[in-house]
Structures are given as C-alpha cells and as structure tokens.
C-alpha cells in the first residue's frame, strides 16, 4: 500500500484513503504541518492512488511507484522552490552540487506557476486525471500565488497538492480553495522508529538534535547532517559563552571564515536551543538580533563580534 511507510499520521491516511474509496476527490489539497513529518511521503502515496484511480489495483503498480519516485510519470508534475542562477532555475539540491552561494531562500516562481498552467492545459496521457504537487508553497511570492489562484479556480481534470507549514503561511484565498489535511509532529517512540528504519539511529543519542527537531524525523536528519559540517573544534568553542573579549573576537573570526551564511543562521538556532536548556534565556535575544542582521546581509564577522561580546557580558 502507498502509505505503508508513513508512520504517525493515521488521521491523514484515513482522510486520503476515504477520498479515494468514496471517489470524493477534491480539486486541491493543502498538506499542512512541520517539515519532515511525512507530507512529501503522503503526497507521493496519494499521487500513486490518484494516478491509478478508479482502479487502485493497478497491474503495474510497482512500475508506477518507481516512475512517481523518479518523477517521470507524464501526468505528474512536482514543483519545488528554485534559485535563479545565470538565467536559469536551479533547485536547492542542484545549487548545493554546483557550489552556489545561497544568500536567500529558494522560492516557487511565477514562471513555475505558468508551467503548471501549461501542464494542465492538455488532457492526461495515461491516467484519468493529472496531479500537481507544489512543495514549500509558502515560498510563493505574491505574483506566483495570484497566478495559482486562477488555476485553482479551474483545475480541469486534475488534483493539486500544496505542501506548507501552516494555513497562515498562504493567502486566505488559496487556503479556501483547498481541503486541508493536517500532519502532526511524531511522538518519541514513533520518531525513534522512523529514524531507526531510515538508518539514522545514532541521532537518538544526540539530545541537542532531538530538541531542535521537535518530533520531526526529517528535521532531525537535516539538523544532524548540518551539525556534521561544523568542525568539532569550532563547535566545542561555541557551545559555551566566551570567557574574554579576545576569545569572543577570535571565535567571531572563525565562524565568519569557516561557515557559510545559511550555516551561520542554523548555528543561531542550535545555540538558542542549547542556551535555553541551560537556563541562560537572557542570551536568546542577542542571538535573535544576530539572526536578523545576518538575514539583512550585515557583515557576518561584525555581527558575530558584537553578539559574542554581548553573550560574554550577559553570561
């Protein structure tokens, strides 16, 4: 079954399965919940059912599943946020492979929404309907979101699935045109089961990572992988407030030289969580100000020098 590997989301599975069994399929769905709790997995499973409906017992369901996983089914379009690089769109994964420096987050662009319209302008080739999945729908700028509204009003023989962290992250006019499916954070036993099955059981021995993940196995894996990119010597130094102004300035220099901008922002999340659990809540505001300045592209070394000096004084 398509949802066999989706753990900890019984309500979502029930609602989606019922829609197929009763043939009450909405033109658009909004999968809302934290990243990494199974929304993408559910979207792929639901797409598999939609592309074989009204005959879910498809004779080539294994082949169909592989084609969906590989993204080469002619009636499925998966849209993910992109960067613009040298006049072309590249995904976050492609940007990482190309070594493109990331100064902002990727977004779902207007031209991608126009691609959706062109995709849906033709009838399905193999199935009774087309399926469009839009990942990180909250990243759409206003022009793209307004363009999507027109498609949601007349999707034709298609079902759209939007993935977003919350209903508040999207325009109310988009939310009102979708059936909402909520995805919950996982409890501790289920989180442990998912991580173990995924081959990441070592994360269960990392309390800092689990605290950051807050019940999301996908986020736990991302945080763990991010942690591995920081040199151990630097990580050890930054885990405790600097003891002198000289130490603060030296640590600021190391952070600015060694870590890229996205990793520096992640480090702020890590330090906020760590200091909170240490009872040093007074430091959190200084770190939040550092995050704001880094996102405004203030010179990183200067940001860290000021922040670590404040942390030294506050600790």
CATH 4th-level superfamily of the largest domain: P-loop containing nucleotide triphosphate hydrolases
- Counting helices, strands and paired strands, the structural category is alpha/beta
Tally of discrete structural domains = 3
CATH top level of the largest domain is Alpha Beta
Strands of the largest sheet, in order across it? 2-5-6-1-7
CATH topology-level name of the largest domain:
Rossmann fold
Tell me the total number of β-strands: 7
Average predicted local confidence, pLDDT:
91
- The CA-CA distance between the termini, in Å, is 54 Å
The percent of residues in helical segments reads 40-55%
**Quaternary structure state of the chains depicted:** single chain
Name the poorly predicted regions: none
CATH architecture of the largest domain: 3-Layer(aba) Sandwich
Order of helices and strands: HEHHEEEHHEHEHEHHHHHHHH
> Helix count, per DSSP?
15
Characterize the structure shown:
- The protein contains 15 helices and seven strands.
- It has 315 residues and is an alpha/beta fold.
- It folds into three domains: 10-182, P-loop containing nucleotide triphosphate hydrolases (Rossmann fold, 3-Layer(aba) Sandwich); 188-228; 232-314.
- Helix 12 packs antiparallel against helix 15 and helix 14 runs antiparallel to helix 15 (300-314).
- The radius of gyration is 22 Å and the shape is globular.
- The model has no long low-confidence stretch (mean pLDDT 91).
Keywords:
alpha/beta, about 325 residues, five-stranded parallel β-sheet, 15 helices, two-stranded antiparallel ribbon, Rossmann fold
């Amino acid at each position: 079954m398509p949802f066999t590997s989706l753990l900890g989301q019984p309500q979502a599975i029930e609602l989606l399965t019922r829609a197929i069994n009763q043939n009450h399929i909405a033109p658009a769905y909004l999968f809302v919940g934290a990243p990494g709790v199974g929304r993408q997995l559910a979207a792929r499973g639901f797409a598999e059912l939609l592309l074989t409906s009204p005959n879910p017992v498809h004779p080539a369901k294994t082949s169909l599943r592989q084609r969906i996983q590989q993204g080469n089914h002619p009636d499925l379009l998966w849209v993910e946020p992109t960067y613009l690089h040298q006049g072309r769109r590249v995904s976050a994964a492609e940007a990482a492979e190309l070594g493109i420096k990331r100064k902002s987050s990727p977004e779902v662009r207007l031209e991608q929404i126009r691609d959706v319209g062109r995709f849906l302008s033709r009838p399905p080739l193999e199935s009774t309907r087309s399926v469009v999945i839009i990942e990180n729908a909250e990243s759409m700028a206003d022009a793209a979101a307004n363009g999507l509204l027109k498609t949601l009003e007349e999707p034709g023989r298609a079902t759209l699935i939007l993935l977003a962290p919350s209903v508040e992250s999207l325009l109310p006019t988009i939310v009102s045109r979708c059936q909402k499916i909520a995805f919950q954070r996982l409890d501790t036993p289920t989180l442990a089961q998912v991580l173990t099955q995924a081959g990441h059981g070592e994360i269960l021995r990392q309390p800092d990572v689990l605290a950051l993940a807050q019940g999301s196995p996908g986020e736990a894996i991302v945080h763990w992988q991010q942690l591995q990119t920081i040199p151990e010597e630097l990580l050890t130094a930054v885990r405790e407030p600097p003891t002198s102004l000289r130490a603060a300035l030296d640590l600021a220099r190391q952070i600015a030289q060694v870590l890229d901008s996205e990793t520096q922002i992640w480090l702020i999340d890590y330090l906020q969580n760590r200091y909170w659990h240490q009872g040093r809540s007074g430091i959190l505001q200084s770190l939040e100000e550092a995050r704001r300045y880094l996102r405004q592209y203030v010179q990183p070394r200067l940001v860290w020098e000021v922040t670590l000096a404040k942390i030294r004084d506050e600790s």
